[in-house]
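Run log, item B.
One chain of 217 residues. Sequence copied directly from the ordering sheet:
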Amino acid sequence: MKAILSKLITTGAVAVAAGLLMTVAHAQQVYRIVGPDGKVTFSDKPPPAATAAKVTSGGGGSPAGSGSSALPFELRQIASKYPVTLYTSAACGPCGSARNMLNARGIPFTEKTVNTPADGQALQRISGDNALPFATIGGQQLKGYSDTEWTQFLNAAGYPETSALPSGYRQAPATPLVVVATPPPPTATAGPGNPEAERPAPPPIQPPPSNPAGIKF
């Protein structure tokens, strides 16, 4: 009987670990594109510069926090391989519970807020849902907060059960999921449709001979 239970536990742990290797959200990037006519679209292909806002999920990159470079080597390796991203909103009670759990356990994570319609559209594209809290651990998606489930996946990823963060570590502040970049104003170019651009600049005003210093009254 013990052998059977041991086999089942081992099989379950392997399944959880395998789930973390899924690439559903790995290195996923979403771009919010505003066209010349004002139409908003989303794409996973990068648009021209200054026309879209880039949204990143928890699928890659370095861990958040002002002290990420000072993380213990083992924790830094885990956070680089299985980065944690938490998606929250101001009106979400369970989001606070999820955040507190990660902080209490000493998990370095990135927090993205979902408070605008654009944020909601981006979240829908990333997770296929608008439910919060939402989190990614590497490529694994966690919808809704469950202490037991989150603990299971964090353990499978190799995160320590108690905090190993250095005393000087500070979690980076939450940032919006979508930050819209404002394109620079167009520069005037000479042409038939822009007579102002064709008009030559007025010559500089020269002071009269009687006022060689150019003093104005």
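Observations after the first pass:
- The two ends are 104 Å apart (CA to CA).
- The mean pLDDT is 75.
Flagged for discussion on Thursday.
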